[in-house]
Please model this.
Amino acid sequence: MTLSGSNYPTAINQSREIDLFAAHTISESTHPHWLDQWVGEATSEQVVTAFSKLFFASPERAQRIPCLPPLGDWSGNRVSSGFGLREHPTLHTLRHHDGIDIAGPHQYVRSAASGLVATVGYSSTLGRYVKIDHGNSYQTVYGHLALTSVRAGQWVVIGETLGITGSTGRATGVHLHYCVLKHHRAVNPADYLTLAIRFVAHYQQQQRTQTR
Model:
């Protein structure tokens, strides 16, 4: 089923958990920049909780929140290192890991949300990497790439190919380092990986229930 703005109700329910929603009635006439402002002021946890409401209000704006896994096919992949404190695999010291590492064969890396490519670069730690600014307090970083297929200043849509996984920089094997930043501070990417997938599955289940 193709999801588009015409599929959504004209308003969404207010949220008891998120006070900012209580002061506004969000409908198709709501200025989309207000949604960006709300996302910018909300905490990471609040955005994750309210994702469905944001999608109902503006699918386009919601797709600028990191909500897709950065690899399209998870067969043969595994999360080799999670977010938080860990023993660094090459330095063998206890350090905070600001993202997650997804190990697997060489494969395409895709944008987890729509946004503007801020940086395509190389560092001694991340190797070849792409950084995307989503314009709503969120940025995503994709590191250790074997090659990149985008340029700085380019607008990319959710799911667009950014490059191919590799082992450039400080890496022990082929994998993707994926980082989600909110106001330039790392948040746990695991909270965002399947937001869109779960939303679509829930929406389709609701539609099937209503047609019975």
About this structure: The CA atoms of residues 53 and 96 lie 32 Å apart. The chain has a mean pLDDT of 82. The radius of gyration is 18 Å. Residues 195-211 form the longest helix (17 residues).
